[in-house]
Amino acid sequence: MSHLLRGHAPITDEGWARIDEEARDRLTPGLAARRLVDFAGPLGWEHSATNLGRIEPLDVSPLGEVEGHRRRVLALVELRAPFTVGQEELRAGDRGAQDVDFDALDDAAQRMVVAENTAVFHGWPQAGIEGIIPASPHAAVPCGDDIDRYPGFVARAVETLLRDGVAGPYGLALGREEYTRVIETAELGGHLLLDHLREILGGPIVWAPGVQGGVVVSQRGGDFLFECGQDLAVGYAGHDAEAVSLYLEETFSFRVASPEAAVAIVR
């Protein structure tokens, strides 16, 4: 029996398939961090810590003639977002309804997206995660509200990385508001701003809910390391006559190996 306890839920195989499909559809577009950093896993629910390859500089041996040091690891964090699905909605889906009410699942998926992106880009100190932006030694590029000048700001960030010996191609994560403004903007001559930015970067531009402003990151590899234990999945918590209580869950760690490989763009 899986720790997700799906076999105990009053949900048919077809119902689980619909729930999983809805979760994938809602999660995939916003998981920006996974498209810009190195992803390892999933390594399983039992995987609890990431090896850092270092030891604590202290002697833990009870014997004076024997040296003992403790290995350092980064514990994985567990994220969970609860939601409910109505029993009648599940039965309607089994009868072939195409408009099953999954609003609560959609909301939980967005909470998970924001939580994961925020941890990776802005950090989660309580979980031992230093985000990409706080770790960067480079001064953030101020952009104000003039979206038409965004190519210049991105070019400045890329030039900063090149000057520091950080090779490309480069990717760009944009928060909700910045991404919307960029895709709606055409420059003189009708050239889409999004296309211009791609030419400068040589890599992807991703919609990143949870990110404040934007951040340019190198795509050369090995700089930002995301280790996944349990990948995002739906589990069962309980039920009554009216609704089934479910949750989205994942475990992961994140670490910055090369702080100099990113430059933030802030308003």
UniProtKB/TrEMBL annotation:
It comes from the Bacteria. Pfam families: Linocin_M18 (PF04454). InterPro entries: ENCAP, Encapsulin_nc. GO terms for cellular component: encapsulin nanocompartment. It is found in: Encapsulin nanocompartment. Keywords: Encapsulin nanocompartment. Belongs to the encapsulin family. Family 1 subfamily. This is Type 1 encapsulin shell protein. It comes from Baekduia soli.
